Amino acid sequence: MIHARGLTRRFKVGKGVVDAVRGLDIDVAEGQLVAFLGPNGAGKSTSLRMLTSLLPPTSGTATVAGRDVVSDPAGVRARIGYVGQKSSAGENFRVRDELVTQARCYGLRRAEARRRADEVLALLDLEALATRKPGTLSGGQRRRLDIALGLIHRPGLLFLDEPSTGLDPQSRANIWEHILRLRAEHGTTLFLTTHYLEEADTMAERVVIIDHGRIIADGTAEQLKGELAGDRVTVTVHDEPEAARAAEVAARIAGSDAVTVERRTVRLRVPHAGRTLPEYLRSLDASGVKVATAETARPTLDDVFLALTGRSLRESDESHGTAPHGA
Ligand SMILES: Nc1ncnc2c1ncn2[C@@H]1O[C@H](COP(=O)(O)OP(=O)(O)OP(=O)(O)O)[C@@H](O)[C@H]1O
Ligand SMILES: [Mg+2]
């Protein structure tokens, strides 16, 4: 469905340049659900805009839904849907009229356009809101309308740029229900960006991480976590000098990594916590360190990002969540 090679985009900003995307290579098979993750400014939206033919690449090639984004942008647009980071619905027309107009733009006859508008209203549970104006909708309702607009011409491939950003957890879950249903009932290929790592982890079958315009990880969430992050071990002891000793012991464990101490808590990463924790506790006991609590946790996608870049994606996620842009 998507085949991109060496896709790059450079923006001129004043006298300088910004290399927003630096050589994107990606293949997405029909029916896949791909989550595209990365911090603010990583190049997610720019990549999506190139793949949807909305922005010409500086160099590189991409075929999307069988059409070349540069030589046949109209062909690409006829076959894909795109839900941008900002809401695309106007303010002045009622929800159903907005959908009918959009359908007419794709060349459907009036009666057909009305029928299709009613179909997508049902698909996104928007029937009760058909005569409202978009300006009066809640954030989640409006996002559902954006998705309905993106689906009006029955595309086999849908791009969604942060479909759930800024919504409350319940609306986010609702958006996801609709996204998963699209795939289950219509076999739609979905390529979406999100800042919510848990969403990508549990919903997507494939996770692609981009940072500074380059793909730095690509696989299932389980693969990435297993290969790149390792399990987390957290041990608390009774005082700070003991914590320092516990950290020294931790650093000597085979395969241990990222040992940190915060007051009475020592954290580290190991390949297999189930095997390592008993060994660590025995060594602590032998060194005379008394352990108060010990916990292990499976890695998260944030641990993957941390392992790859030394930075946390969650920090940008949180700042993002409090200041959503767009919808
Ligand atoms: N039209 C433009 N002109 C100049 N620079 C741009 C333009 N669009 C994007 N950029 C820059 O390109 C980089 C990538 O931006 P992009 O919007 O693709 O990031 P993103 O991953 O979608 O981030 P976010 O999570 O904040 O949406 C950023 O440094 C951004 O400032
Ligand atoms: Mg973006």
Automatic annotation (TrEMBL):
The way it spans or sits in the membrane comes to: Peripheral membrane protein
Q: Which SMART domains match?
A: AAA
Name of the protein described by the UniProt record: ATP-binding cassette domain-containing protein
Give the family from UniProt: Belongs to the ABC transporter superfamily. Drug exporter-1 (DrugE1) (TC 3.A.1.105) family.
Q: Where in the cell is it found?
A: Cell membrane
Molecular-function annotations in GO: ATP binding
A Pfam family it matches: DrrA1-3_C
Q: What is its main location?
A: membrane
